[in-house]
Fold this protein.
Amino acid sequence: MDRFSVSVRSQFRGIYAALASLVFPAPCRICARMLDTGNRIPFCHACLTTLTQELSQPQCARCGRPIVSTAVIESASPPQCHLCRLATYDFDFVRSFGAYSPAMARAILLLKYTEITPLGSWFAHQLVKLAKQNIAEFAADVVVPVPLHPSRLRERGYNQAEQIARPLARLLGIPFRSYLLVRTRPRPDKIRLTHRERWETVRGAYAMHQRAKVDKMCVLLVDDVFTTGATLDACSRALRGAGAVRVAGITVARALPSSLALDAAVMVQDQE
Ligand SMILES: [Zn+2]
Ligand SMILES: [Zn+2]
């Protein structure tokens, strides 16, 4: 098919989507208001605006946590958060796209339980913008999604981190390797985990696949939410143990102290 007919087709698809939203009005999957956009992401304009708000600056040089205390900024250059100054994390660099707001929590919940494939791709496009702001830090040999335990994967049918990581790898032109890491211990069934439990349940819960090779490689880990950083830390330790020289992480959302008070929907999401 020539380029002209491809462009006509894509234009037609756009017009069709806009008409379809008029003829078959659908609610926004976040706020339930009528959709006012014609794109393939079932979110209204207001919700999309909320979702695309970037995290505030300045951020911790290592983990990307927004830094609010000016004392920290003045005392260290480049600035690091309390946890990074204590050398808590094994990974070298992490950035997240947006805050884990109620709207974001809802969007990620949809990604987890409804397999809206365009949503993974939409998130990947947002993460590319973030990657382009940190080109050197995100330079990698492979893109690896944070894996689910096989029992969880069977239950859900797909890994939501993979839904984001696969299109992201394609957009960045980096090989996608979903099999390198495996989760060897499942998450406990308890819905909400405390801060300490989050660390304890993932410690040593990830391992390299038998035939995986990451020796002297730079790895870009992808996950949906950065909550305590324990998951990315555990994955990073497994990769580092197998010889990875550099581990960077990128997530769609970042839980901040202000976003901890979320609704019941988020508690369901907390299950992994
Ligand atoms: Zn909405
Ligand atoms: Zn930090």
